[in-house]
Structures are given as structure tokens and as C-alpha cells.
Amino acid sequence: MRTRELGRSGLSVSALGLGCMGMSDFYGGGDEVESIANIHRAIELGVTFLDTADIYGLGQNEELVGRAIKDRRDRVVLATKFGNVRKSDGTFVGVNGKPDYVRSACEASLSRLQVDVIDLYYQHRVDPNTPIEETVGAMAGLVEAGKVRYLGLSEAAPATIRQAQKVYPIAALQTEYSLWTRDPEGELLDTVRGLGIGFVAYSPLGRGFLTAKITSLNELSDNDWRRTMPRFQQDNFPRNVELAKRISALSANNGCTPAQLALAWLLAQGRDIVPIPGTKRRGYLEENIGALDVRLTAEELAEIDTLLPPGAAAGSRYSEPGMRTINR
Is the pLDDT of residue 276 over 90? Predict the structure, then answer.
């Protein structure tokens, strides 16, 4: 497994990470036995950068990850997040970046994960009612206390990132980035690169769409969160299926799967970018790892840009309330 350094932080991670969210939440039911086996297989294959958050499964995902790594903690780089707040029924109620909350959220995550220190601790969303300097100041206090090693932000705007960096070095920005979400290109990527911050790309497979395996909404369970997302609704869905067909044709010519082509494209955008595709199954995990062996020529990258340019996806990536929480 090749590694990549997150910016100039000194934190080295596997070139592909593993997003664990779907093992407990949002994409239908989970299978804990298979999920833990999946995490163990990932570690065995060198995918040692694991990503979770305190709201995934209302803490259940952190607990699952904690059980999975209990006897192999020294082999993983563990990332989790705080800030998004949900009720016990799962309803999203807002974002909290107040210093007291930062400290209490970290203690709760440490307990659920059964670890003494979190390697990379992100603010999941920026709290518009709390100055970023106060939030990051509290996060820096966690580093000084030995509870966290590195700090990160998620879905933050360039101006916010610059302000945060003045308080304490930010190791990574985590934001959605893929062939159907190319929003980071331009000012956002330029900002993090200029500041020496690594970029962690979540949903690098377009929430499964870029695998070309989702051709009908009937393939999603009734409680799958994607059913509520604009890109999976109304006229947007068939238009996005057509985009997936383009990726499928390109991958066939390249001798790889659509998922591998989408990940290889993202890996080719810079060595400071680390995708964290999520999967619940070992077969898909191993398929994703195969992307590291796919080499795209300059001509192939140009062809992909032509067939899937920025803005090609139909519909926004979140519903209106969700869109208000990003890039701020």
C-alpha cells in the first residue's frame, strides 16, 4: 500500500482510506460481523486510514470501529468528527462549535472508540454562531492535552480555513470531491495547497453512482438516505445514470471497473488528495484498492474531463438545508 502525506502536517496515511459511515447509518441496514471483517481486511491490505464521526449511527459507528481496532490500534490512523448534532431519533438539529461542546464531544468519542487519543479530529461542519478561532482554539487544547494528534476541518470555506490556520495548523480538509462533484477545484484546492493542508475526499464514488451499479431507485432500500437527495430524484436520476454509463464505457476501454476509474482519476488530481471510499463489503473494498494500479494517461484524463466536466451532474449534492451547512 502506498502512502500519502496530508499536506505539510507530517501525518502519513494510506493512499486510500476507508469511510465507515455506511456500516451503521444512512445507506440502509448494516451487518456488524461483515463490517468488522471488512475493517480487518482493509488493515490487512494496508488501508489503515479509517474515517468515522460521532453522528454516524448516533455514536454506534464509533463503537463499531472501536471494537474492530481494539487489538490493532497501533496499525491505524483513526479519524473522527464532531459538530453536527442530532436528536435521538436521528433528526438533525444544528451545528455546535462552542469550546465546551468541543471538549465534551471529544471525551464521548474517545469513550466510544475505546482509545486514549484520536489521530485526526475534524470539525464536521462550521458553526456559524461560533467564531472559528474559538472552536479551533478548543481543538488545539485537545492536542495540548494529548487527546488528539492532528486537527481537521470539513466542508469549510477558504476564508474560514485561512482564519483557522492562524490559530493552529490544520492537517486536512475533508470535503466531497469526485467526478460528479468537482466543486473544490479552483479557490478551495488552491487555498489548502497554499497553506500546506492535505485534502481528504469523501464520497469519491458519488454515493455509489460512479460505480455504474445503481440503475434504478428500486435498488435502494426504503430507508436509504440517498432517496431524499436531489441527484437521486425526479428527472435528475436518469440524467445521472447517463453520466455513469459514460464512466462505464471509459473503464471498459481501460480494462478496469467504473469505480476504479473514478478513484484513479481522483488520485491523479494530486498527491495531496486522499480519497476515502466507503463500503460495507470486502469485495468492493478489494475492488477499490485495485484503483491504485490504474494508470491514466494525459490523453485519458483529458477525455474524462471532456465527457464529465465540472457541473455535469444533475441536481445539487444535498437538499437545501444541507447545502446551507457547507462552504461556510
Answer: yes
